[in-house]
Write a structure and sequence with these properties.
Structural class of chain A: alpha/beta
Shape of chain A: globular
Oligomer: homodimer
Helix content of chain A: 40-55%
Radius of gyration of chain A: 20 Å
Distance between the termini of chain A: 48 Å
Order of helices and strands of chain A: EEEEHEHHEHEEEHEHEHEHEHEHEEHHHH
Largest interface: A-B, 34 and 34 residues
Chain lengths: 376, 376
């Protein structure tokens, strides 16, 4: 199980600095969780992920269930030993990937009936086996199976999905309650699309099930930024203050700063790793595209302030060359840099909350980092 | 410049254990040089290459000249700082890559007139600028520009190419002789195809130019293994005993063992790195293909005897999963393992030579390692 305590609170915002104790170690919040989809944070080793400052990683149940498969995972008594990561792991339920990746997916009251995007094989994921699979994976934090909707979605669609999500949450909770020698914690996921009253309905129903932690799902699915922030602003206070609050699949550095200010504790997103593989690097002064011709002869590091392995040892010109040459090392060094940036940002926010200077932190963050400032 | 001393000789073969002092450090021979084509040993960092036991790496002049280009290399005062490798570097002359990769190549007395395989741009490489480019790259050991021939080639073709190679070697030597504050060493390359008398002619002519080291070129170009060994067996003794003897572009673990026995000191080959990226792993008991279905549930390391980072931390099942999932980490871990295997093999040979037990070493090597034994 987990324990969550709040160490410090910002008096200038709803930001809080906490400490989440899990079976595999303590996580200092607010925290960003690098995404290790298929049992590897793409392009880097677990040691490197830890060196970047990661305290917890996320695994995708959908991917791991299909490949390597649960029979292989069982041989290693879970994902930790299989991938050689001994820190905390959170797994998603697979719902979002079934929705976005599976070839054909049919949603019924029972669960998701879908075809693998890898080999077309048929599978059924129910709330009960979503809990079972994640428990077999050995994750410290597991998520309820939830029903996702596209954006935009009308109110009826959103309401139906949230009500199914609530019923599934109840079934997940029942399944989780009876796990023998249970180690993991189960989080509920608030849905309700972009409708505040549906978000409220969802939160209230989940709260009655009393989960160890809560997440906001269905954000950053294509909606305007303002709308996402409105929903988060309205929904986060609906969740119990003393429980960790996790916003799924978000977001840009600016998103993280805003959402921490609104009281969110946990995040995951493919952005730092995926963008790295596309040559986009985050820096204190903005985001740069290392493929840009201006970096061909640039002997300086990506970010002079950065202490990551890429910035300590290599120049922009070298990273530019590696990327242009499609060398495998490019993806790795870029990933190291971006993960370091994200995790360093979270750590800076935690310090600012602890010193109760979050407003000043935010002002400095925006003053130095302009979204397209890096390349200019 | 370089200095070469022979520490020990095998009394059971022509194998010798030497010590090659270069501006960037001492190399213990016999040595294998990992290939860092475009300023990176593919998939791994310089620190990792060193951790695998590498003492010297090879850079490809053709690739580096085209990309990043010499203007960029000059900004870093050479390849060492550009790629963050501070050990010895040997560069080839570019001749072989022009022959095998360039879109169109015309060989004249002057040099190679060719079109870049990257962007079609026209370039002229002469013996003089081959020396100049490699000197700008800052390599510790540079190679004469040589003319390559296909296999099979008739005697006339082989004779013409070797004679051109000899004339070019003279021009390279003249250009190298006048480099101000020269640090690097220039090696001559023996050609002559599969014709022993042409190899002899080539060696004799090069020896009269008195190079600090000599290489055998034009081997492992498609000829039968026996023929390659015959040519090496005949040619190596033609080279001065007190100079390092380098066999270019060779080979399998078995090749290295045989050629060390024949008196070769230095090797380079893409085999450990390229095969790694194809899922083929070298082990003490043979070569295995990690994509093989039998490894899906194999919880043991690739090679129980191996101390590389991949074998210490990951299972065959995990490497199988990574490779099947085309995860970037697969290429890196496989590369680390294969480089470690090759470099460990060289070190074992050096120890066997020093203890004068090379024959026993060879017997054990063949007894445990069968070419296809790993997968059986």
């Amino acid at each position: 199980m987990i324990q969550f305590q709040i160490d410090n609170r910002s008096t200038e915002s709803r930001a809080r600095a906490g400490r989440l104790t899990t079976p595999h170690g303590v996580i200092e919040t607010p925290i960003f969780m690098p995404v290790g989809t298929a049992g590897t944070v793409k392009a880097v080793t677990p040691e490197e992920v830890r060196d970047c400052g990661a305290q917890i990683i996320l695994g995708n149940t959908y991917h791991l269930y299909l490949r390597p498969g649960m029979d292989v995972i069982r041989l290693f008594s879970g994902l930790h030993r299989f991938m050689n990561w001994n820190g905390p792991i959170l797994t998603d339920s697979g719902g979002f990937q079934i929705f976005s990746l599976a070839k054909i997916s049919k949603t019924t009251e029972t669960g998701f009936d879908f075809q693998s995007h890898i080999d077309g094989s048929r599978h059924l994921i129910t709330p009960e086996n979503a809990v079972d699979i994640q428990t077999t994976l050995g994750a410290d934090i597991i998520m309820c199976l939830d029903a996702c909707i596209p954006y935009p979605a009308d109110e009826n669609q959103a309401k139906e999905a949230l009500e199914l999500t609530t019923r599934w949450a109840g079934r997940c909770k029942t399944a989780w309650d009876v796990i023998p020698n249970r180690q993991n914690a189960l989080f509920g996921i608030v849905q309700g699309g972009m409708f505040p009253h549906l978000r409220q309905e969802s939160a209230e129903e989940l709260l009655s099930l009393d989960f160890p932690g809560y997440a906001l799902g269905g954000l950053s699915v294509g909606e305007p930024k303002d709308l996402m922030m409105e929903i988060a602003d309205q929904s986060l206070p609906l969740l119990p203050d003393e429980r960790p609050k996790y916003i799924m699949g978000v977001g840009t550095p600016e998103d993280l700063v805003e959402l921490v200010a609104l009281g969110a504790d946990m995040f995951d997103c493919v952005m730092p790793t995926r963008n790295a593989r596309n040559g986009q690097l985050f820096t204190g002064s903005g985001t740069i595209n290392i493929t840009n011709a201006k970096y061909r002869e640039d002997t300086g590091p990506v970010d002079p302030e950065c202490t990551c392995a890429a910035c300590r040892n290599y120049s922009r010109a070298y990273l530019h060359h590696l990327y242009r040459s499609r060398e495998l090392l490019a993806y790795r060094l870029n990933t190291l840099h971006n993960l370091h940036y994200y995790l360093d940002l979270m750590q800076s926010m935690r310090k600012a909350i602890s010193a109760d200077v979050f407003a000043r932190f935010k002002a400095t963050f925006y003053a130095t980092r302009t979204p397209s400032g890096g390349d200019e």
